[in-house]
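During the first year of the project, the team set up a workflow for recording each protein of interest as an amino acid sequence followed immediately by a discrete structure-token representation. This format lets reviewers and collaborators read both layers of information side by side without switching files. As required by the reporting guidelines, we include two representative entries from the current panel. The first entry is reproduced here exactly as it appears in our internal archive.
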Amino acid sequence: MSANLAALIWEATLQTLYMVAVSGVIGTAIGLPLGVFLATSKRGELMSSPLANRVLGLVVNAMRSVPFIILVVAIIPFTRLIAGTSIGTTAAIVPLTLAAAPFIARIVETAIRDVDGGLIEAARAMGATPGQIIRKVLVPEALPGIVLGLTLAMVSLIGYSAMVGAVGGEGLGDLGVGGALGDLHPERRVAARAAADAGVGALFLF
């Protein structure tokens, strides 16, 4: 392995770690409270709000059902609005976060719903408020499942980062595609990204 290739791999690895770490933290910050709300807001539950639960549930399911590569292209205008560009590691964080947040929300919801209902009733009997039950009973009891789910989410984000890297997001995916094509020039990758955007965008016309 040449020194130049080793340097490229090291740089791409750091870019991938940056994308995964930042999107993972932001996705968790969004997905954790969202998952807690989804797990406690059905009719008759601690934070009963059936309509909001139904609407948020539909949004989460819709986001999870969109193939990631389609999501990346579909939200290019939103990515440009947030990051100022649709190409590069910082821009890649936007679709990665939007993919991670609903996934994490469902993981948290499932982990909390697995908590024994008897613990909730016992806490209620002792006069605990809904907020106290969530903070001191539900989240601590569900923590092992949440941590396991977050680990799976981080692994998924690594795979997603390779896909977004292949369409201009940089990182290991970008390096892999560039190496496979024998082309490591940024100008060619930008042209390939534009061609990919046009091709996938055309799918929405039919």
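The second entry, processed by the same pipeline in the following quarter, appears below.
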Amino acid sequence: MDNSPQNRNLLDDTRVRYDAIDQPVFDIARSNTVMPLQIPEIPPEATALIGKPQYEEETEFPIEMSYVWNTCAAVQNANPLYWDPKVAEEITHGQITPPTMLSVWFRPHHWSPGVVGDKKPMRAHFDIKEILGLPEAIVASNETIFGEPVRLGDTLFTHQVIKSISEVKTTKLGTGRFWVVDVETVNERREHVGSDIYSFFGYKRA
């Protein structure tokens, strides 16, 4: 290891911490070797969206079992709860769907009558990305919370909520901000059936 005075000064001036995706974040105090990118302040139109439900959607058809059987067959899930109506009646008082299929019910078809253009998923995310002027973004983490089971014949409703926008961060990918989007889903009885919580990192490359 180079312990020269010049190298020691660089090490002294560089403090390392870790962010939500376990990537090192560098704070450069006095070194002229690396300069962080300039990221503007968060615009008012971005902060105005925090906590505001957006992009409410309804499933295009009532929940039905053919999707469930196709999904279970694809992953060889032989749980009789999803294949045998009698077992489902005994255990859950009727047929339910695998909790991990929550997002499946809102995946748009490639074509629907009267629909013009592509239906973009996670629009709240793309809105923030554009408002902040950050050209690239990744999903840093994802958490799913399950509530009431999704049952045969249910109609589901969902909306997106921007929960937070971070201060400027620098990772190996570049310099930008983290933001969190919740996708919250209820059934026609207004019972919470689940939430997907996404943490994104939007950035400019160094």
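For the second entry, the following points were noted during internal review. The chain has six helices and eight strands. Residues 1-33 have pLDDT under 50 and may be disordered. Both points are flagged for discussion at the upcoming steering committee meeting.
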